[in-house]
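Saturday, quiet lab. Running sequence design on the structure tokens for the scaffold JK sent over.
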């Protein structure tokens, strides 16, 4: 806690609140934790302190635009969106021939992750529409993967094995093993052995086994990146 303003009759404090949520998906129970910074203004009245204002402190980007510093990722909503649009295109978004990353970005956005806006298409993670464009990380598989692993606005933990993922998590694919990532999917179910089943666009897929061995793009040099969304 820090005291931002104090003048005898009014006090403004900034506190960091730890929030935890338990939710159950099928037979698994998950704990989701976030930290939220809040600014609370107190005023003195009849020898008592009353709350005058209570607001979340926003996170200010370098470009001067604001977005939420903390968010709650709703895995169920992300998966619900992935199930709704896996074989169709949401008319609110531009449709691409290679649509896999655009689809995954939409799923994460539907799950409550706010966009990170920037004046440059090379920075942030955002979509402003057909007229005003979008970031490379929103639509390009390689850019999206780099954005995740280099500490972008989307909080992630990179995992070693696919079975460590849960629904709403993301898998990135480098089919040729040459460092250029060409595809992304979202985990929507786990099979009997605890392995991910995924939904995807480009070749529209639902409940597809995660390793893509049945894909025409598959090669023995394939590399995977497993991202757990925090």
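Result came back. Writing it out in full:
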């Amino acid at each position: 806690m820090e005291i931002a303003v104090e003048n005898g009759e009014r006090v403004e404090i900034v506190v960091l609140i730890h929030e935890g949520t338990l939710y159950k998906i099928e037979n698994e129970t998950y704990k989701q934790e976030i930290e939220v910074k809040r600014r609370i203004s107190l005023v003195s009245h009849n020898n008592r302190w009353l709350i005058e204002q209570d607001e979340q402190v926003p996170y200010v980007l370098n470009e001067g635009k604001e977005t939420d510093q903390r968010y709650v990722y709703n895995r169920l909503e992300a998966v619900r969106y992935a199930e709704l649009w896996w074989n169709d295109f949401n008319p609110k978004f531009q449709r691409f021939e290679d649509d896999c990353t655009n689809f995954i970005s939409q799923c994460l956005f539907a799950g409550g992750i706010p966009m990170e806006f920037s004046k440059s298409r090379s920075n942030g993670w955002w979509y402003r529409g057909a007229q005003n464009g979008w970031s490379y990380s929103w639509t390009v598989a390689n850019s999206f993967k780099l954005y995740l692993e280099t500490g972008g606005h989307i909080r992630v933990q990179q995992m070693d094995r696919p079975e460590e993922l849960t629904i709403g998590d993301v898998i990135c694919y480098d089919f040729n093993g040459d460092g250029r990532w060409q595809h992304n999917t979202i985990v929507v179910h786990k099979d009997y052995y605890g392995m991910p089943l995924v939904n995807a666009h480009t070749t529209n897929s639902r409940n597809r086994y995660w390793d893509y061995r049945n894909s025409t793009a598959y090669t023995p040099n394939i590399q995977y990146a497993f991202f757990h969304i925090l």
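Notes for JK: Helices lie at 75-85, 100-110, 136-139, 141-149. The first strand starts at residue 2 and ends at 6. Ask whether to fix the surface positions before the next round.
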